[in-house]
Amino acid sequence: MIDRTANLLGVVGLAVADRIGEAARDILRRSGETPAALVVIGYGLGPSNDQLRRTLGLSHPGSVRLVDRLVADGLVERRPGQDRRAIALYLTPEGSALRETLLKGRLAAIKPLLAPLTSAEQDALAGLLHKMLAGLPNTDLERCTLCRLCDDSVCTDCPIPADFRTQRPAA
Questions:
Q1: From CA 148, how far away is CA 40, in angstroms rounded?
Q2: Is residue 63 assigned to a domain?
Q3: Is residue 171 part of a domain?
Q4: What's the structural domain count of the chain?
Q5: What is the DSSP letter of 80?
Q6: What is the pLDDT of residues 24-77, one digit of tens each?
Q7: Can you give the residue range of the structural domain that contains 60?
Q8: CB of 99 within 8 A of CB of 42?
Q9: Residue 26: phi, psi to the nearest 5?
Q10: What pLDDT was estimated at residue 165?
Q11: 86 occurs within a structural domain
Q12: Which residues partner with 78 through β-bridges?
């Protein structure tokens, strides 16, 4: 039975990922890590390019190109970082508005998958998902990577709180 459950969970995971990707493409007209970059930068903690790169799993040149595109599109701005050696990334008002649209679109794309469930079944599923997530990776970088598209305004009592402020560049 566990193989069947794992298989079904894998299919649901792909359905969710596909729907999120499609919603992001419709809203942003871009794919790849652009949506996640907007969400992560939008937490408002001024990640450095290196922190963003590690969270998104990009190469340094790939992250630089992504940030350059977001800056050129008027969605992200570079500001001096806390230690003056790094540049901190922040969303512009246009970037913040687009981020909100993206997060609403993400939830709207996922909600139809829950429609066949009763309210009690949705509550039970939420409890099970919370329990599953609580057993996942325990490093801050892993948690940040998992939460790279999370809408922190609707996620209360997070089972894997990601503290983007504690990420430090690798030595």
A1: 6
A2: yes
A3: no
A4: 1
A5: E
A6: 999 998 878 999 999 999 988 899 999 999 999 999 999 999 999 999 999 999
A7: 2-153
A8: yes
A9: -65, -40
A10: 44
A11: yes
A12: 89
